[in-house]
Amino acid sequence: MNCNLNTTQQTTFYRMKRYIVFSIITFIAIILPYITVEGKHFFLLSFDKKQLHLLFTTFDMQELYLMPFILILFFLGIFFMTTLGGRVWCGWSCPQTIYRIIYRDLIQTYLLKIRRSIHNKQKEPENNQFFKKIVGFLLWSALAFLAASNFIWYFVPPEDFFVYLKDPIEHSVMYGFMIGLASFLIYDITTLKEDFCVYICPYARVQSVLFDENTLQTIYDEKRGGQIYNDAGVKMGSKPPLESDDCTGCEACVRVCPTHIDIRKGMQLECINCLECADACTPVMAKLGKKSLITWTSSNEIERGVPTKYIRFRTIAYGIALSIALIGLFLMGSTKEYMLLNINRTSQLYTIQDDGKTVENVYTFLFQNTDSKDHIYYFDISNNDIKIQKPTEPFQLKAGAKMKKVVILSSLPKTLKEEGEDLPILIKAYATDDKEKIFVTRKTIFIFPKKSDFAK
Question: How far apart are CA 134 and CA 140, in angstroms?
Answer without folding.
Answer: 10
